[in-house]
């Protein structure tokens, strides 16, 4: 899709380091084409070289004070994935009961994970002690290390999309249930559990939008000028 179709204007000048129009469009295309993949995974394993590129992209994310607080646990063992899936199944049943009757029925009809089907699962964690007791940029906003880890996840996701690889973020679990399964120390925060693999199809728009669970909000009402609530 052309940039103009997404409201991305051509640059009025060429700042230092700017990408070419073709390169720029490829970046935006990757962003707009990113999808949360549920169970459309193929069984073929990721080539080691491709996985290395994706993890390097994640590792090149910005981080507060260059603390790089992330770790990546690669999970391929079917028995381990089955144990994680059991945790998800229990929590998913609890989640369904939190919605009103009609919404609960719709929720139960959604496929929300590909833990068993994806050839690779990745647990992304945050080591909040990395960088020492005082980290530049984190002196007053302590959670910037968690935000940094999420930036790494986004890098991984976009790099995977550019490689034709799907990623699904599974968030319906209790950290303390996963911790003993994966041997994660108590001081380490589990930020994301990802299902990763080649796919046989991708939705042209977010799946939850396609299934009429929710829809993308228009951008304009979300933008304020100078102060909260002041419109442009």
From TrEMBL:
Residues 31-197 form the Nitroreductase domain. It comes from the Bacteria. GO terms for molecular function: 5,6-dimethylbenzimidazole synthase activity; nucleotide binding; oxidoreductase activity, acting on paired donors, with incorporation or reduction of molecular oxygen. It is an enzyme of class 1 (oxidoreductase). Its EC number is 1.13.11.79. One of its GO terms (biological process) is cobalamin biosynthetic process. SUPFAM superfamilies: FMN-dependent nitroreductase-like. It catalyses: FMNH2 + O2 = dialurate + 5,6-dimethylbenzimidazole + D-erythrose 4-phosphate + H(+). Keywords: Cobalamin biosynthesis, Flavoprotein, FMN, NAD, NADP, Nucleotide-binding, Oxidoreductase. Gene3D superfamilies: NADH Oxidase. Homooctamer. Belongs to the BluB family. This is 5,6-dimethylbenzimidazole synthase. It comes from Methylovirgula ligni. The lineage of its organism: Bacteria, Pseudomonadati, Pseudomonadota, Alphaproteobacteria, Hyphomicrobiales.
């Amino acid at each position: 899709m052309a940039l103009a179709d997404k409201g991305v204007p051509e640059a009025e000048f060429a700042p230092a380091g700017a990408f070419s129009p073709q390169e720029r469009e490829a970046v935006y295309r990757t962003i707009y084409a990113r999808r949360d993949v549920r169970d459309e995974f193929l069984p073929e394993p990721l080539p080691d070289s491709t996985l290395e590129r994706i993890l390097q992209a994640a590792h090149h994310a910005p981080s507060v004070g260059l603390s790089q607080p992330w770790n990546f646990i690669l999970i391929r063992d079917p028995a381990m994935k089955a144990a994680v899936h059991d945790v998800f199944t229990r929590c998913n049943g609890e989640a369904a009961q939190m919605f009103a009757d009609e919404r609960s029925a719709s929720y139960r009809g959604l496929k929300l994970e590909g833990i068993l089907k994806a050839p690779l699962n990745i647990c992304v964690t945050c080591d909040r002690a990395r960088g020492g007791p005082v980290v530049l940029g984190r002196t007053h906003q302590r959670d910037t290390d968690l935000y940094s880890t999420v930036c790494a996840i986004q890098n991984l996701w976009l790099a995977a999309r550019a490689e034709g690889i799907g990623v699904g973020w599974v968030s319906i679990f209790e950290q303390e249930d996963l911790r003993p399964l994966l041997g994660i120390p108590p001081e380490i925060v589990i930020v994301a559990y990802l299902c990763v693999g080649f796919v046989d199809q991708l939705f042209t728009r977010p799946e939850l939008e396609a299934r009429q669970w929710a829809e993308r909000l228009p951008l304009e009402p979300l933008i304020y000028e100078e102060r909260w609530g002041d419109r442009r």
